[in-house]
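Q: Convert this sequence to structure tokens.
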Amino acid sequence: MARLLQAPPKFHPSEWDIANKMQCASTESQKSRSECMIAESRRLQDEIEKTTQKTQSDVNKKIEQRRDEIKFWKQELDNKLEQIVHETEVLLTFKTRLEKSLESCKEPLDIAKKCLLNRQRRSGIDLVYDEVEQELVKEAEVLQGVIALLERTLEQTNEQIRLNRSAKYNLEMDLKDKFTALMIDDYCASLTNNTPDIRYADNALKIEGNFVSPEEWIDFSNRNVEKAEKQRNNSLALRALIDSILSQTASDMRKQRETVNVAFRNRVKEVKDAKNKLETLLAMVMDETASQEKNIAALKKAIADKEGPVKVAQTRLEARNRRPNVELCYDTVQYRLTSEVHEITKNIQRQDTLAQAETELKALSRRQLSLEEEIQVKKNTLYIDEVLCMQMRESVSINNF
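A:
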């Protein structure tokens, strides 16, 4: 208890003085350090502020540059898209021309086949593999070749249209992405330190998605542009080819059509000439037949006219053969009567030309029938060539599409 009530130790005045001085020195030192820290902090703040402002300014410039790059490529893509769309529309008109030209080939080919089929109905000697037939076969081959060529070209055109549309799709998708990217960068460019909706984003630095390098970004759009340009050039070349094909095929078909028509006209003229000659021969045969019929009638009359004298002479001879006894004399009368009978009989026999004349008449009749049949053959040929075929071919027109 006595210890608890013991007074605290007393310090010496010098110790008190030293303690005060130490407090002052410590305080001054702390104050100095604090002032240095404040000065360093202000310097650091100024430095950070300047660095931040510089970095933010640089980022703003980069964003602006990026926006310019996007705008540049967007314009490039827009130009190519406009070109490929226009080229596809023009190519579609060429496709329509091909389709019309292909459709127009069907009628001439059908008519050529009908002409060949009709000409099989020619008869007799007129069923000949003539120039008309040869040119009709060639015309059918030309038309079939043109149809095959146009069909291949149409397939090629459809494929080129598909490729153009594929290039257009790639451009549109790229443009869509460019538009979105530009909208985002426009938004980023509009942000300032005082923009109300700025916020902390914890995952901002986390890399999400498949980032590509700037070079890959440029290469991607450049490839789309180059592909579109390539397809556009291919389309231009194809249009030139289609123009050439349509012009050449139309020329070939017109040329062959005219060749066939000339062959038809020549053949019709030949058949008409042959028919006219046959008709002339027929008229001549008919005239000769009439003359021969008159000749036969005259021969028959001449023979009939001799029947009276023969009967008289033979009746006289028969009567004189009944003379009695010595009166049955071979006198000059008997001799002359006998001579008369022989003479008339001989003259009648000399007119055996009647049989020959009748034979000739039959031959003329056969010749007339043969000529009439041949004329009918020629008429049938003329009907087929001039009426059926040539009139049918007049409806054919070869147009440039």
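Residues 13-119 form the longest helix (107 residues).
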